[in-house]
What does this fold into?
Amino acid sequence: MKKIIAILVLVVGFAFNTNAQEVKTVSLEQTKGEFTQKQITLSEGTYIFEIANNNVGHNVGFVLAPKANVKAHIKNAYVTAQVKDNSKETSKEVTLKKGEYVYFCPLNPTPQYTLIVE
It folds into this structure.
């Protein structure tokens, strides 16, 4: 009986691991005063944002917020360090639900761009 329970625990644990949500990377590039990607459409899920600084001439960052409340920044979406000239940095994991968001860089500075989660 103990062997059967141990096998069931292993099978259930394996099933949870294989059904774990995959973390996807969204790569964005900044140039002087703008992102090269003007709008993004994603599916619900968990993402890491990779921000590239393409010869901006100074450090850049990344802000993601719900479109309905731009001041409510999603702090896990911030890059873990300012992105130095001609380098890349990533955010922590961010789980996004259906809706509209905006992304921008206050350091570059850039316009606000739309990110849609379907």
